[in-house]
Amino acid sequence: MAGGIGWWYLSFPVVSRAEPTEMAIEKGASARQVGQTLKDAGLIRSVNMFIFYTSLRGWSDKLEAGYYLIPSNVSMEEIAYLIATGIAHNDVVVLIPEGFNVWQIDERLADAGLAERGQFSKVYYMREGYFFPDTYRFRKGGTIMEIAKKMEDNFNVRNVVHLGPLSIEARDRIVTIASIIEKESLRGSAMNLVAGVIENRVRRGMKLQIDATVSYGSCLRKFLAMIGPPAAGPAKNCFVNLEPVGKEIKIDGPYNSYTQFGFPPGPISNPGAAALNAVLNPKGDYLYYLSTRDGSRMIFSKTGAEHEANRKKHLGL
């Protein structure tokens, strides 16, 4: 009798449905939590039976997070298989690399078919810096609000230990510096040294003189001149690497670190964990740096004369 009941639990759908059921499995969810989600959605009859069956099949630790589209009229054993293998995933995988700015994120989302081009950047350009770089699974057909929240929630979770106790002003300062480092340095110890250069120059009352802030300011100025009210529709994205830095340096503005002292008003990209950690651990007593022509090395200097000598040696300038 017990075996018959178990077979009934496993093999027969709860109800006959005309349409598939969309549901989400959170990252790190246990078999019990997944089972409860399925039961709440009316897809299985018993949480305990789901736990027993997934344990029996060795799937308890293999239930994949993500958005699922569960076909209509499937049994509990079929549902367990779909989630354990990820076959029914209804999400879109998107990689947001370290140092992407909001316009690049917008382009990546548009390429993935998750938003209209220019839609995300128009709404969220003021949140630059707080979309944590990572590989994401976004729900197909979801909203840009869901996408933004997922990336910002990830930022908060990943940085709660280091940034959580800080004031908003201190946190913004760290994120801004980290966003510059992402655009200026190689990986590894170079990040800590660049963080040191930035801190040392500001402390001495020197201008940062960083091209990346100038380019970003140019893009932002053009972008703001173009966007209208939300009803006006998506805006056209700006590509920072195409901005004419030599010309822009001569135009004063809040992001022009050749004319302004201190830090720019906000982040110029979305930094990853390494850049954020570098800001918290700046190193060296250098005041200048440059990248070799092939981009393979960064050369640091303590004096203007030393920096000029390095420019001649490594760049021929």
Summarize the structure in words.
This protein is 47% helix and 9% strand. The strands form three sheets. The chain has a two-stranded antiparallel sheet. Strands 3-4 form a two-stranded antiparallel sheet. The longest helix has 20 residues, at 144-163. The model is unreliable at 1-8 (pLDDT under 50). It is built from 13 helices and six strands. Helix 2 (31-40) crosses helix 3 (47-56), helix 8 (168-184) crosses helix 9 and helix 8 (168-184) packs across helix 12. The chain has 317 residues and is mainly α.
Instruction: Report the helical percentage.
Output: 40-55%
Class from secondary-structure proportions = mainly alpha
Unreliable parts = 1-8
The proportion of residues in beta strands is 5-15%
Distance between the termini: 87 Å
- Approximate shape: elongated
Order of helices and strands: HEHHEHEHHEHHHHHHEEH
Count of individual helical segments: 13
Give the oligomer, counting copies of the same chain as homo and different chains as hetero: single chain
pLDDT averaged over residues: 89
Number of strands: 6
Instruction: Please give the radius of gyration in angstroms.
Output: 25 Å
Widest sheet: strand ordering: 1-2
Q: What is the domain total for the residues?
A: 2
For the biggest sheet, the summary is:
2 strands, antiparallel
List keywords for this structure.
single chain, 317 residues, mainly alpha, Dna Ligase, domain 1, 2 domains, two-stranded antiparallel sheet, two-stranded antiparallel ribbon, 13 helices, 47% helix, elongated, disordered N terminus
What is the secondary structure topology, with strand pairs?
Elements: H1 2-11, E1 21-25, H2 31-40, H3 47-56, E2 66-70, H4 76-85, E3 91-96, H5 102-111, H6 119-124, E4 134-139, H7 144-163, H8 168-184, H9 189-203, H10 211-226, H11 245-248, H12 273-280, E5 288-291, E6 298-301, H13 304-315
Antiparallel strand pairs: 1-2, 3-4, 5-6
Helix pairs in contact: 2-3, 8-9, 8-12, 9-12
